[in-house]
Amino acid sequence: MEEVKLSIFGFGNVGRATARVLLEKGEVFKKKYGLTFKVVSVSDRSATVWLPEGIDLREVLNVKETLGKLSSWTNDYEVYDFTPEEAVKEIEADIVVDVTNDKNAWAWHMEALRRGEAVVTSNKPPLAFHYAELMGEARKQGAPYLFEATVMAGTPIIGLLKETLLGDSIESIRAVLNGTTTYILTRMEEGASFDEALKEAQNLGIAERDPSGDILGIDAGYKATILHCLAFGPITFEEIEVKGIDGVSEEDVERAKRAGKTLRLVASVEEGAVSVEPTEVPRGDPLAVSSTQNATVIRTDLLGELVIRGAGAGLKETASGVVSDIIKAALELRGE
Ligand code: HSE
């Protein structure tokens, strides 16, 4: 039986949802893939808990949920105040899992790759700013660098572009990639105010810790940048055009509604050109999604138009993408 060592960075909603899936589906993964996952470290903003023999996930979830932070843990486990970079250097792992919002995480992703360790991430800025360096290092080291959960949560848009449409030339991509803004615009159509709708999105756990990233289109911009990197080659967030929904008024929403349309924050990706802006979408359009759904319309030379639609946010929905990548990385490390 293969035992795969995981080092988990980030123990907020997505980190805990990932731990829960690993805990609850451990037997399924053992039977289906012959893989056993041993979590050797878990880090939150306060501390790193490190136990080379493997951490009891039930216990670490319980501590985080009752005490609020890992630094409060005082039993036989070793608790350290490493920076993420120090933790990567100290802790021996097969797969480094980044479920943080650390904007500077690319530096410790690079360190993990240099050490030959796989990286699985749901954290977008490293890719939106440093895609070329990260993929270059991953290739050089022969180490998997996987990021399915960065765009459309577990809905497999990354795998589709990276591993499936290999003979097609992508002509364009149009997409709705941010659940919070769709949720707010949907609720505004139903008569709620912007602020009420934002509060609801925060309560549902779909908005970022700082929701301005969602509202200003930055989150959708990161995701559109990542799609461009896959479809057309490297580009960075600094090179794209982003307009959020902060300027959208109740009148704008009403006007679209009267015209049989709906306002959505639409990303448009063509070779060398990425933009994100509020756009009126006809009711029957594949991009007229509601609630936390995302949709992407990919146009290729061979296939014509392809639509992929599904959950774009949510805890277990994001954990779906993270865990899928953890299994993929483990299989790749095993040579499959
Ligand atoms: N805040 C994001 C959204 C979560 O609203 O879509 C997933 O990246």
| Helix and strand sequence | EHHEEHEHEHEHEHEHHHHEHEEEEH
Main beta sheet, described?
A: 7 strands, mixed
How is the quaternary structure best described?
single chain
Query: Helix count?
Result: 13
List bound small molecules: L-homoserine
What is the CA-atom radius of gyration, in angstroms?
A: 20 Å
Q: What name does the CATH topology of the largest domain carry?
A: Rossmann fold
Spatial strand order of the main sheet: 4-3-2-1-5-6-7
Distance between the termini: 15 Å
Average pLDDT taken over every residue:
95
Say how many strands there are.
13
Q: Which stretches are low in confidence, meaning pLDDT under 50 for 5 or more residues running?
A: none
Question: What is the helix content?
Answer: 40-55%
What does this protein look like?
By secondary structure, the chain is of the alpha/beta class. The protein has two domains: 169 residues, NAD(P)-binding Rossmann-like Domain (Rossmann fold); 151 residues, Dihydrodipicolinate Reductase, domain 2 (2-Layer Sandwich), CATH 3.30.360. 42% of the residues lie in helices and 23% in strands. The chain contains 13 helices and 13 strands. The strands form two sheets. The chain has a seven-stranded mixed sheet, sandwiched between helices. The chain has a six-stranded mixed sheet with strand order 9-11-10-8-12-13. The longest helix is centred in the last third of the chain and has 19 residues. Bound molecules: L-homoserine (HSE). L-homoserine binds next to α8.
